[in-house]
Amino acid sequence: MTNYTSLEINGSPVFPGGGIIPPGGAHFWVIPSHADALNGNGEVGIGASVDRPMATVEAAKALMRSGFDDTLHYVGGSTSMTLAAQVDWSFSYAHFVGYCAPTRTAQRARIFQASDLTGASPLWTVSGTGCIFKNFYIFQGVADATSLINVSVTGGRNYFENVHFAGGGHATQAVDGGASLLLDGAEENTFINCTMGVDTIEAATGMMAMRMDGEAHRNVFINPIFRMRAGNSGAGMIEVVDAQGIDRDNTFINPLFINNSSSNDMDSCIVAPAGMGEPRVLILRDFDTHNITKLDANDRGIVFGNRDIVTPADLSGAMKQMIT
Q: Is the pTM here over 0.85, yes or no?
């Protein structure tokens, strides 16, 4: 096991930026830039020490166990992590932590799609439950029209903090059906200080920072940033895929929706089909938008908030349906 020295409290290692890893599990270190890191073939390191780390997520993941609070520690550096195949984090109660400066955008504990990997849609799936993901950047930006979803969350009760979900990083991928994050049946997950989207590529009509499907419900976003650069007014921030895309509430506290385009305002921040309404709602508390014409251009009756944007029901601060 790794000696954490000052990075522990009562025997439990501490996250970068605060927080404690649940005790009891095994710990595996991945440092792609380490001179002695290996790819899981037993040549140098075994992953259980920062002095003998592994070089890839795949190698460390192969040793991890579901249900034991095992943790993969990814130390960022001059070398990024490149995925040669899709990853399905099917573990429950197993954790992934990046060690780097905890910036909100493009953290240096970074994961990329290999340029020759095709059909990676999604590139990374979180299908387990009770997992912690913290402080890393996952980027999808290759010339492949079959790799449109960056990260898909299908599991429940997972915790994400300071993760940048960065899909659509190539013009071939920033198209209709593409998204940086997909919540597909995801339930009761928490996202704190996470960023969805990139603003380095012009997004086509139908490209979204996030898509919601499969009755995703009771997910909570605290201080999220949704960012894009619209190449067309039909790009958006959040899409509810169909009339059963969400269920009950999904809550966004202090979200920022930023369209960094100098020529194309988004027609609608949130896109949803007809035939929706209570109890399928999105709750926005204390939000701001930039270069976005309307919050819900079609007034589907699912967006509620406490800000007097466009046409407020009143000025009391009470939560009302946002009429645009």
A: yes
